[in-house]
């Protein structure tokens, strides 16, 4: 049997917390699964079983068992139960606070000659023309203005 790199040594309080998560079944299935894996991988468990057996019992890959063990050993119980949070969103937002401020300032300025007031389409076209942003729809301009309770009517 290979040496276990990350040992799961649960305290009594942690074991009670994990048992309540498993028994109540009022949380996400992933959290319950990770709680079961931690309980099975605990070195104080009288029924010691290996990672492949845990993986087979809970229908997960062996690497999942190792990942849960590693997360518990390095980051703690809550990190092992929860999902990893993204540090960076998958797509950077195009509309930042600076862009929104410049669009609002444009709406507050005088409209082009020959027009009484700005329309959403005119604001979107002017924003692209002034190179504030590479592309924007009139609907996005409307959402920005709605957030600030600013109306073009």
TrEMBL record:
<keyword id="KW-0371">Homeobox</keyword>
<dbReference type="GO" id="GO:0003677">
    <property type="term" value="F:DNA binding"/>
</dbReference>
<dbReference type="Pfam" id="PF13565">
    <property type="entry name" value="HTH_32"/>
</dbReference>
<protein>
    <submittedName>
        <fullName>Homeodomain-like domain-containing protein</fullName>
    </submittedName>
</protein>
<keyword id="KW-0238">DNA-binding</keyword>
<dbReference type="InterPro" id="IPR009057">
    <property type="entry name" value="Homeodomain-like_sf"/>
</dbReference>
């Amino acid at each position: 049997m290979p040496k276990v790199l990350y040992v799961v040594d649960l305290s009594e309080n942690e074991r009670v917390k994990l048992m309540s998560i498993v028994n109540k079944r009022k949380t996400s299935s992933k959290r319950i699964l990770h709680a079961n894996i931690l309980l099975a991988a605990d070195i104080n468990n009288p029924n010691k079983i290996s990672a492949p057996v845990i993986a087979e019992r809970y229908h997960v890959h062996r690497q999942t068992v190792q990942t849960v063990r590693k997360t518990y050993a390095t980051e703690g119980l809550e990190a092992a139960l929860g999902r990893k949070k993204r540090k960076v969103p998958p797509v950077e937002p195009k509309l930042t606070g600076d862009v929104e401020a410049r669009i609002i300032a444009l709406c507050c300025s005088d409209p082009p000659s020959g027009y009484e007031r700005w329309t959403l389409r005119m604001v979107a076209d002017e924003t692209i023309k002034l190179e504030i942003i590479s592309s924007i729809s009139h609907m996005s301009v409307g959402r920005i203005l709605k957030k600030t309770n600013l109306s073009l009517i």
